[in-house]
Design goal:
homodimer; mainly alpha; 3-stranded mixed β-sheet; 12 helices; 67% helix; globular
Chain lengths: 345, 345
């Protein structure tokens, strides 16, 4: 896989950076799931310090080697991948001053805590100044990184290399009219109720959690390499190739939401977990891009999860675990899940 | 508090080391509580890498400054504390080679996982080779650190500065005969049953957990700054001054054990939590020594927890939460807890 001596040296040195990333991922997961409230005081400082340390180690130990291979010829596709991924990171790290990195890393932890509390209380005002500061800092970030047309292009590039605001505009401009037409047609048909009764029925969190776990097990989630926890907004974090954690939320009503969030995150997780083990702890460990990631999560959530066939698999499990859904007929459940029996199409 | 310019610089630079410590503490907590099984593969590498990084940063950034203040005059007691604590650490870091640090940090994570599995299966053989290797490495450690009489003196010094094998021998030699006499007298009295029936009765884990939580709340455990979780061996970890986590275990029978473990760890936690906030994230944040730590944990466990008065507080809570203990008379519960009504002494 890695034959080039410089690349091998990079991969060796990168293990310390990967380890910092591992720690920061775990700290992020913990902050959203189990950290006691006041823990944010230490966590925010530690997160910012480790972000700086990462930056410093990268520039000091890895950067000179990366520069050596960036223009190099005869690299195999893995080696070229390392050069490309780290080359991009290096360029970015150099453009944004240390101070901005530090403040943003600290603010993210603090703001996330304020957001959680504000969300629970439905109090946007409490979060507003933090959101403003995050925006401000992100704008600064964009200015440092540089862009051709729109400041967000500089930031979007982190998620989807090369994608611009203009591309996204173009995509939605072509998609929206067609989607609107489909939506109108479906609404006119009158098959799906505007709001289904089950959306308003309160469920037992413990029952739904058991349902989610059984569904994940059926989908093949490897519990020895992952976890399902609870957070205000569902997410997936790959702490390592052998430890990928997902969350869902329990809003109390409309159980589809929690279930499909779990299936969505399952899609992210299964992608992260299936990276070649030989790439573990190297710069090539993560997914290719957010777009590819979402293609996986939405495939499982929408193509698999919201299909008639899958809902027929779900039905007996819902019957088994969810007392509130027990009185509903087969047809009613199909309507709630917005699926149509194939023969009726 | 810190006035001396060099000490102030040390404290500033130390924040990166503290942050690594923060991450490593959380990783340690997570490995014992929530980490999925196979996560050990990445966690062991990350732990070893961060241990090396800590060492490297210490020697590179902090060591020259520490050397400057180690002999300095006119330091106030906080500044002298920083010089003393970091001076000791520096001396140790220099004596033990990087390779040994790395291997031990990695092995500790791996061995702990093997130990957990072996414990659950009652299979010592599975753990034996790991234990042997830990011993071997610890002996190497001791040789590098140096000692006057017994190799363990070098290691004991980590927990209780200056204490030696000989001191411990001497203490136990004086204590054991007296304790034996007390034990014989108590056994002859026949008040306490050799084994109490309640030791063998299986409890509901969820019920006991609720009891433990209510007891900790009554003792004043600040839940906004701490957690109670489950691990095969109870422990306390101070992730920061504002985030101290304790664990207990649920063995299924003899509920005192779980309850007193929680109270014991509460003692450790409350000590960690009450360090002056001005010392947070500095080298003086931790407790003074393991001896002082145990004086706190055992005070709460034994002097408070195992007192007649406290058991009278416990009784209604046990009645409320623990269905298996409901049939027992007041006197029976006192016997189970080995306490005597003051009037009868």
């Amino acid at each position: 896989m890695f034959v080039n001596e410089t690349v091998k040296e990079i991969v060796n040195k990168y293990r310390a950076l990967w380890s910092l990333g591992h720690a920061m991922s775990l700290m992020g997961w913990d902050a959203e799931t189990y950290m006691p409230e006041e823990g944010v005081k230490g966590r925010s400082v530690a997160s910012a310090e480790l972000a700086l340390l990462y930056r410093r180690l990268f520039l000091q130990d890895v950067a000179p080697l990366v520069e050596k291979v960036m223009g190099a010829e005869g690299l195999n596709e893995y080696e070229a991948g390392v050069a490309r991924v780290l080359g991009r990171e290096l360029e970015r790290l150099r453009k944004v001053p240390e101070k901005v990195h530090y403040e943003l890393a600290k603010l993210r932890v603090e703001a996330s805590k304020v957001w959680r509390d504000a969300k629970a209380q439905g109090n946007f005002k409490a979060f507003e100044p933090y959101l403003e500061r995050v925006f401000q800092l992100r704008r600064e970030f964009a200015e440092h990184l540089g862009y051709k047309e729109h400041p967000y292009d500089a930031l979007l590039d982190y998620y989807e290399e090369g994608l611009t605001d203009k591309d996204v505009e173009f995509m939605f401009r072509s998609l929206v009219p067609a989607i609107k037409r489909v939506l109108e047609k479906v609404s006119e048909d009158g098959y799906y109720p505007r709001a289904h009764e089950l959306e308003g029925v309160a469920y037992e969190k413990e029952e739904l959690e058991r349902l989610n776990r059984e569904v994940l097990t059926i989908l093949g989630f490897p519990w020895s390499r992952g976890r399902l926890d609870v957070s205000p907004h569902p997410f997936t974090v790959g702490v390592s190739l052998w430890d990928v954690r997902i969350t869902t939320r329990y809003e109390g009503r409309d159980f589809r939401r929690s279930l499909f969030a779990a299936i969505h995150e399952f899609g992210h997780a299964i992608y992260d977990m299936n990276v070649d083990e030989a790439l573990a702890m190297t710069p090539l460990e993560g997914g290719a891009s957010l777009g590819v990631h979402e293609s996986q999560s939405r495939f499982w959530e929408n193509v698999v999860g919201r299909s008639f066939s899958f809902v027929t698999v779900l039905r007996p499990l819902i019957e088994k675990h969810l007392s509130i859904a027990r009185g509903y007929s087969e047809e009613e459940l199909y309507r709630y899940f917005n699926v149509v029996r194939p023969s009726t199409i």
